[in-house]
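#random but structural
TW: two for the price of one
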Amino acid sequence: MRYGTGVVLVVVAGLLWSGFGLAVRHLDGAGAWAVVFWRSVALVPALMLFVSWRSRGQAMRRVLATGWSGVVGGLCLIAASLGGIYSIQATTVANAVFLFAAAPFLTAVLGWALLGERVRGATWASIALAAVGIFIMVREGLALGALDGNLAALGSALGFAGFTVAIRSGRQGDMMPTVVLGGVFTMIAAAFVAPAMGETLWVSTHDIILSMAMGACLLATGMALYTIGSRVIPAAELPLLSIVEVLLAPVWVWLFLGETASGGTVLGGTILVSAVVLNALSGMRGRAVVPA
């Protein structure tokens, strides 16, 4: 595969993921647990087909081979999924997706603390800059009464960071089998937790179909394209390409629903996205000076 083709695939993946906010806004009233349950119902078989295609029919074997790191990563994805949906329901799409962008920095900190991974000086500087943006957005959320949505978004980013660190700890070369486990664990958790919280999984047909479309069309297809495309793209460049999700998600809800973001969200989000871009650019420069 050529580099240009990989770029297109990764950008299209980000484009698909950017539609989550708009999709959630069109739900009739399903709660977060119901959404992640039905999303996983469609996500798991879709990803199993993809894993089977890549492993020549050995999908189940690949999933079971993830071991304990896969189990931990899958459990972390429960928090990532639930926090992601709830945050979009509880705050603006812009506020939620900007905070999702903190995931790479949380991954760096967890990898340093738990795995002893080295963190570049430029990354620490970017983390400090990102923390400023996060502080501004969380403070804004507190003032607007949307603190729970902001905290859920950060919880989602932390869950994804935990998932990433678990994959690294197990030296897994493919994240897809762990995502499959995450979908299975999410369905099981939703089946037990939702009724205990007084939330039903049997929502309207419209919400079930929309949630399943999010799982199979937006999430699974996007992850498949991202996985294929990322194979020919340097790791430092991936955040720059996939950030299209963060930039476009607020545009869709503004364009189709008239939803706008507060000044604090725009300022904090701009600072956070700038930190992601600066960190990626510094990684690209560092890669360029390494002797061949």
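TW: number two ↓
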Amino acid sequence: MAEYLVCSEHEIVDGGRKVVACGDKEIGIFRVKGALHAWHNMCPHRQGPICQGRIYPEVVEPVDENCEVRTLQYNEGNMHVACPWHGWEFNLETGRNPVGRYRLHRAELAIREGQVYVVL
């Protein structure tokens, strides 16, 4: 296994990210609700750079009694990233696509003495 020093633990603010090269892999590290999550920078759909995508709250489409959507709402408790190539979205904490069939590939993190390392 190889370890790659990324940054200090506090350099990635809540809601922020850092994308780094680790050998021949790119890894995106995100801070969500105070916790760090690391994902390989490859969308399972068409291998796009998922970690460079837009970060936003989960979009909820409330359906009324006539089975129509009148407005969009956001679930601030679930932050998502959308692939810049085709818009596929994934939960930043679980790596799951809302449909549930696809998921991101997690990368292992180690934190020692205030420094963040990716372990591959």
